[in-house]
Structure formats: structure tokens, C-alpha cells
Amino acid sequence: MKEIYSINHKQTSINISGSKIESVREKNILKTGLRIYKDGFIGVSGAIGKFDADELSKRANSALKAKVEYPYEITSNIKKDVIINNEIFKDNDFINEIEEVLDYLRKNQSSFIFSNKINMSTVDTSLKNEENLNLNYKDSAITVELVFKEKSSSNIMDGAIVFEDRKYNKNDFISISDDFLNAYKNNVEFKKEGKYPVVFASIDDTPFIKFISDLNGRVFGTGSSLFSKNLGKKIFNDSFTLYNSLSPEDICLQPFFDAEGTINKDYRFPLIENGVLKAANTDKKTAAMFNLPLTGSAVCDYDSIPQPGISKLKVKECEKTAKELLGGDMGIFVADAAGGDFTPDGNFATPVQLAFLYDGEKIIGRLPELQISSNIFEMYGNSFRGVSKNDIWPLGNIKAMIMDMDVKKL
Amino acid sequence: MFKFSKNLYTDVRIEEVFETNITFTLGKISEYKIRNYKAAFIRVFDGDRWFYSSTSDLDEIQNEIKKLSKMAKPNDKINDNPIVKKMEVNSGTFLKFKDNDISKVSEEDKLNLLKGMFPQVCENKYIKMWTARYIDCRKVKEFFSSKGSNIKFDTQRCGFSMGFVMSEGNKKLNESYQKASCCFEDLKGKNDELKKYINKCEYFLLNSKPVEKGTYTVVLSPLAAGVFAHESFGHKSESDFMIGDETMKKEWALGKKVGSDILTIVDDGNVLGSGYTPFDDEGSHAKKTYLIKDGVLAGRLHSSSTAAILEEDLTGNARSINFEYEPIVRMTTTYIEAGNETKDELISKVKNGIYVETIKHGSGMSTFTMAPSLSYVIRDGKIAEPVNISVVTGNVFKTLSEIDGVSNELELLSFVTGGCGKMEQYPLPVGFGGPYVRVNNLNVQ
Lengths: 410, 445
Prior knowledge:
The structure holds 2 protein chains of 2 kinds.
Chain A: E1 2-17, E2 20-38, E3 41-48, H1 53-63, E4 68-69, E5 78-83, H2 93-108, E6 112-129, E7 133-150, E8 159-165, H3 170-185, E9 194-201, H4 209-214, H5 217-221, E10 242-245, E11 268-273, E12 276-277, H6 284-290, E13 298-299, E14 307-308, E15 313-315, H7 322-326, E16 331-336, E17 341-342, E18 347-352, E19 354-358, E20 363-367, E21 370-375, H8 376-379, E22 384-387, E23 400-409
Parallel strand pairs in A: 5-7, 9-16
Antiparallel strand pairs in A: 1-2, 1-6, 2-3, 3-4, 6-7, 7-8, 9-23, 10-11, 10-15, 11-12, 13-14, 16-19, 17-18, 18-21, 19-20, 21-23, 22-23
Helix pairs in contact in A: 2-3
Chain B: E1 9-25, E2 28-45, E3 50-55, H1 61-71, H2 82-86, E4 91-94, H3 107-115, H4 118-122, E5 127-145, E6 150-168, E7 171-181, H5 191-207, E8 209-210, E9 214-220, H6 222-233, H7 246-251, E10 265-268, E11 288-293, E12 296-297, H8 304-309, E13 318-319, E14 328-329, E15 333-336, H9 343-348, E16 352-356, E17 359-364, E18 367-372, E19 375-379, E20 382-388, E21 392-395, H10 396-399, E22 403-406, E23 411-413, E24 420-422, E25 425-428, E26 431-434, E27 437-444
Parallel strand pairs in B: 4-6, 8-20, 9-16, 15-26
Antiparallel strand pairs in B: 1-2, 1-5, 2-3, 5-6, 6-7, 9-27, 10-11, 10-15, 11-12, 13-14, 16-19, 17-18, 18-21, 19-20, 21-27, 22-27, 23-26, 24-25
């Protein structure tokens, strides 16, 4: 049985250097993988760009000799298209719009230098096989990763304005930038070490590192995970629900199906539900091997064999705004925390290179570099306040995840 | 070969790639991939802006040149542009690995290399989950420019990684043993070393305790020292961060004292290993660049753009991860040079400190970080009990001056998994290493 997995990525990428557009990069690359399933084994071949179907088939057949086992039911008889036809910009408008934003920032935020990328991408992904599987996903988004540095700073960079969205509005982009940069210029004091509500943006993976490693089905199933003995047990806060999500509501440019064609209800699978550990991330092989629920978490390159992984971890929002979750406290907003990690037993510590004081509606000012620490069972247990129902900014679909942690000056 | 547009600078990079990835999970084969492709990246420069395109259809290169040229503004002074003037013109064929081409090693030999190590892993009762990976990559690159460059050269690396998770009750340890080289033969005969490493990990698993948080003198292994050199200082030597930035130009003026007298950091694309870059992706020759010499800022890494703007020499550091990306300033093999003390002498002078042997990852802005895996207390000059540490941090600018001991043995390391990330471009193969290095006043959590 043959199956074709193809990804077509079109992109215009603007590179900014010294607050000006330095380059424009265009690409339109098709990557195709052919999977052949035969006698309980899988063979895969791949091509970039134009390909000879016979040659691809010959190579996939040849790969079968490696005897990679795949005695699982192939996803079949589903036809589903999710085509998000959102024209964000017309032709050359993208470059002109970004020119205008940069022009504004050069004039109105002249104490900063801006650099890095703003991309406009369209990704078209499909998975089709001879057993009537025909899944298609097409999506477009703008991805902003605008790095800023204060001219007087001796750092190589001081922070970044980051968001990805299917919609774009120049004034919103400018307003986010102004909020961030004006707060950056306003230094505020960190008075006393202690426990504070720490606010993570929902696009930040830092607080999820342990879930990414220890909720991998293979690690979990072999008993090597910190959570291995907790399946079905309530180990976190009632209000903590964690999904593996491929929902277009939660993530841009990623198809609603996993690399094996598994589609979850509402495109999400709860790994932790109301504090109870329900599942670890599995592909078909891992689910069968360890008798775990199939979570639709298969990931792979266009020409690889599916493996368990994660595209997006999503925490369920609560009914409160960020302001209500803070309940009158001032929060510490983590804008950049690089290099921290969890120990095997779940203790967590990270420096926060860029932190802001945050009142739940507005970032007030820049705090000095901080150190935050806790333990995974605390962070998502008694110390977990929730994820806001509202977005932090008008672009990017970014919520505030708030938990109490030990904070001290670095 | 190509027709380049008049009054514009143009170059074309063609990459012919061969890659193997064989993975076993718990002893069963779970990935078997041999990838072969040829693709190109095209650049056009009009003196003001660059225009790039990538294509997997080599017959389309000429059309892509035409398309990009239309986007650019013709400039009859393009050859006088400082960036264009800075570009090296090289020609010739430089195939270093013609006689030990990794793509010619049989698949059976690659499989057997991995399988031969399975018993070492299987016989340890604490290893619950493991993967064995063999990875190689060979690239033959051709580079043509409107200035007359016409070169063909190759790079290759191969290696294996035995990754495992040990578990005993609530104690867990995630570690890996990895070897990489440019030559397949170098990967053979590592079973005893692997066994010793697994035994060391078992001891760590059973005996490690949470560290007492605080400020310590830390001795870094060559691996940790290499990460420190790469993260804490190497990225700051990438001069694209300085463009249009007067503060950085003053802050990082060559000749400035930035570290202790015994500290010398080098980047060198000529070193064989995973950072080997005989020519960069603008066709410039590799150079040995002293970033810090005897504690003094001695040089930085350049592309032709940054070298022209900062009026410095090319260093051969314009690199891209693959044909879909433009070259940007990146490291190659970065290391701290050896000093005079032995490893034992270095450790003997620490009353109460930490020895970091392996790390999971590191990062570096004004604060550098490393997340240690295998680490130990140093007590009264001797390595003592193992400890679990979340993160070691320090201020880069202060830490470079806190180095007060460097051992006399230099170890350069190569890798086949992971790599260096800079903005969108990850992973780029790099090498790093150093001697054992003693650093005071690091924050250990």
C-alpha cells in the first residue's frame, strides 16, 4: 500500500539589519515522501522538488529491506480538507507594510536598533493513500521575530517582539511594539526575594520542558518518566488541563492531522485533564507497544518514519482574565528566559534575562535579571493560578499562564 | 556556466547532499533513511539590498537569477561597492574526502557498527529506554560568482549516539554517549569506552543528590568549556550583531581587555571535525581567528558584509544550514587554548566547588547558562559525590575574568546530533572544546 506525504512551503522572508530591510528571500519548495507498507513493514523514500514517481517507488521498496516493523492499521477512508484562505497581503504589500512599521520605529523608538526576520508563509500539507485517505491542509501566516537592542546596551540583543498570526494590522503591530519598548525603557526596582505570581506567555515552551521530555510515550511507557507511575492519578491542580493540540485555533501552519493521519476530536487530545494524568504522547507504534491511548502525536520529516513527538502543548484557558488571575498582585512577566531546565526529580530553575512588571493588562516596566525556581508538581499544583481567557496583545493569540514561584535577583 | 546580470553582484551555491539516519529504539530498527538531493541558493546584490532564492530544480537557476535581478536596481558602480570588493575570488576543486567518501561505506557496515554496541546497553539493568543512532552527512558544494569564483569542495561527518534513560525508583537519568568524526574508521572500537561511561552513569543515578544552591568555583570539562566558549563568547564574536551599532563597536573594540590573562579563544574552520568549513558559503577560505588572545579581544567572525562595514579582514564564517537559507555569520570549531596546569592540579586548588562533566544545553546573552547533567562536588581538592543541578549561570563579562586555571590538555569534540542555533537557522554543525577550565563565582542552582 502506498501513501504520499507532501509539504509545500512558500515563503517571503524579510531580513532586518540595523533597523532597515537588508534582504528579501523567496522560496517555494515542495518536499514529498512516499511510504510503502508491505507485510507489516514500512519503507520510505523522499524527494525535494520535481521527482520521478517510479524512482521514488523503487527507493521506498528498497528501504523495506531494513525491516522496520509497522504492523498497525493504516489510517484510511477519510477525506477532509481544511483550507484557510486568508490573504494577509497582496503581492508587494508585505514589504511595503514592513517598511512602514520600520519607518515608524526608527522615528519613534529611536533609542533601539532592530534586526532579524519577518516572514510571510503559506504551507500546504497533504497525506493521501491508496485506502482512500485524503487529508489536505493549507494555511498562511505572518511570523514576526523582531529583535531589539537598546543603542546604549552592550548586549548583542536585549529582547524580541514575537508573534504569529493569520491576521495583520499595522497599527496593532506598532502598538505591541510601543507597549513593549516603552516598558523596556522604564526600569523598575525588584525589592525583595520571595514568592511572586510569574506570568508566562502561552507561546513560551520553557515551563513545558519536563512535559515535552517525560510525556513522550516511549519514555513514559518504559517507566523512565517522572510521571510513569501516575497514569490515572490526580497529580496537579484541578484547573490544569493540558492538551496535545493540532487545532488551527491554537497553532498556525501545522496540519490538523498528525504524521500518521490520526485526527483527534476538536483536533486536541487531553494529556492531563483537571489535574489527572490521562495519557502520554503516542504514535501508533508506541500506543500499541505500551498499551497507551493513541494521542495522534506522530511527527516526522517528509521522508522519515513517524515517531512520537509534540507539535503544540496547549493549556486550557480558565474563565478569568489575566487581571483577575493576578487578583490585585503585580505579576512578573517572563519575556525571555533562556538556558534553564528541570532536574530528573522535577526541580526547575532558570534565569530570566528579560522580565517585566505586569498588572494583568499592561506591562509596566523592566525588572532586573531574575532567577525563578520551583518544582513541576508545585508549578502546576498548588501554585497554579490558571491561563487567562483574554489575549495579552491584539496579535498572536497569546494568553497569560500564571503560577507562583520563588523569585530572586540574579 | 551562468549568465550573470550586468551591474549586479550575483552568486550561486549548489549543494549535493548525501545523508544517512539509522535509528534503533530498544533494539528494534525504527528509522532507516538515506537522503540524496541536489539544490541551489542564489543571491543577487545591488549595493543596497540582497535578493535571495532557493530552488531544488537546477535547470531553473538561470531563471531564478533573472527573477531576482528584476527585483534589484542595476548599479553601474556595483564593483566598487565595499562588500563586493571584499568578496574573495577562488577557483579550483578541493575534494578532501574523495578517498574515504562516507557515501561509499556500505549500509551493512553502518548497521553493524551500531549493533556491535547493543550488548553494552542491554546488560545494564537500570537502562529502561534507549536509542542507538548512526548519522552521516556528506556535502559537495559548488560556488560560482559574478566576480569569477568557481570552486568545488566537500565536507563530511559521521557518528553515532547511544542515548539512554536510566531509572531506579524515582531517580532518573537521561544521558548519551556520542562519537563523531570525518572518517568512518574512527568510530570503531568504542565498546569499552561506552561500557565505562554507562557504569559512570549508573553510579551517578544511584548516588546523586540535589546540589546545595549557591556560588561556587566550578571546574568545567573540555565539553563544558567548549559550550562555555561557544555560548558565552563565541556568539558575541559574530559581528553581524554589531552592524549599525556604535555602542557595540566601542564596547568590543579590538585590543580591549575582556578576560583573564590565561584565556585564549580561537575559531578555526580548518579543524577537521563537525565544524570543518574549508570554504564558507560565500566562497571565502577558512581562517584561524583568535577571538581572545591572553585575555585581550583579538578578532571577530565575519561575512563579507560585516568585514566590509567594519573594515576588517574576512574570516570564512558566512555559513548557512542548507540550500534554503542565506549565509550569516556563524562559528566553525571554537575552542579555548590549553594552559599549563594538569587537570589534577587544577582541581586540587578547589576547597569547595563543583565539577561539571557533561551538559544538556547552554545559552548565552549577557547571562550565560549551562544545564549540567553529570556533575560532582569538589571537596578539599578532590572530586566527591555526584549532584543534580538545574542550571549554572554567570554574567559573561564578569565570568571571562573569573577564569583562573586552564589545564594543559586540549580536547576538540565533534557531534552528529544537535548543533548550533542562531535565529531561524538550526542546527548548524559546529565543533568545540578546550582544556579543563576553572572559573570562580558561578551561580549554581
